[in-house]
Amino acid sequence: MNTSLILCLAFAIGVIAGLRTFTAPAVVCWAAHLGWINLHGSHLAFLGSIVTVVIVTLLAIFELVNDKLPKTPSRTTPGPFGARIVMGALSGGTLAVAGAQVVLLGAVLGIVGAVVGTLGGYQARHQIVTQLKVKDIGVALVEDLIAIGGGLLIVTRF
After folding, report:
1. Labelling 3: which of 26, 99, 131, 158 has CA 20 to 30 A away?
2. pLDDT, tens digit, for every residue of 86-144?
3. What Rg, from alpha-carbon coordinates, does the chain have?
4. Alpha carbon of 128 to those of 43, 64, 101, 139: distances in Å?
């Protein structure tokens, strides 16, 4: 796999983190656990452990449910936005390590992807709901499917 593709995938997994904070690390952890990506011998090998997979998967499921609740703050507020940036960095850096690239470059691209995914996802969802006059939950469920499917598509490219 060439360097450009790996770095594009690091950016793309960041976009997924921007859509759903814990979906990106969840698919990365599952990919490591299932052997789709190789983290053996790296400082990130723990991401493939069953304990990490279970914890991050539960966090992802909780987030998918919590996103639909009326009291959930916007993804663009500092706390959720910061979490998406951190998870984008972790996920992008992990894919860079799996592709034998520089972890810092993958993390930076993951951060940029998370910013794009956060702001773009917010705008897209808001515009679809207001312009088409549809219920937010329907758009949110489609966004869930895009995040999960997109994340799986990304990690299976290795």
Report:
1. 26
2. 999 999 999 999 999 999 999 999 999 999 999 999 999 999 999 999 999 999 999 99
3. 15
4. 41, 19, 37, 8
Q: What is the pTM of this model?
A: 0.96
> Where on the phi/psi map is residue 32: left (φ > 0), alpha (ψ -120 to 50), or beta?
alpha
- What six digits make up the tokens of 153? 């598509």
Amino acid identity of residue 29, one-letter, is C
State the SS3 of 22-59.
CHHHHHHHHHHHHCCCCCCCCCCHHHHCHHHHHHHHHH
DSSP H or E stretch at residue 110:
helix 103-132
Q: Which two tokens stand for residue 38?
A: 């190789």
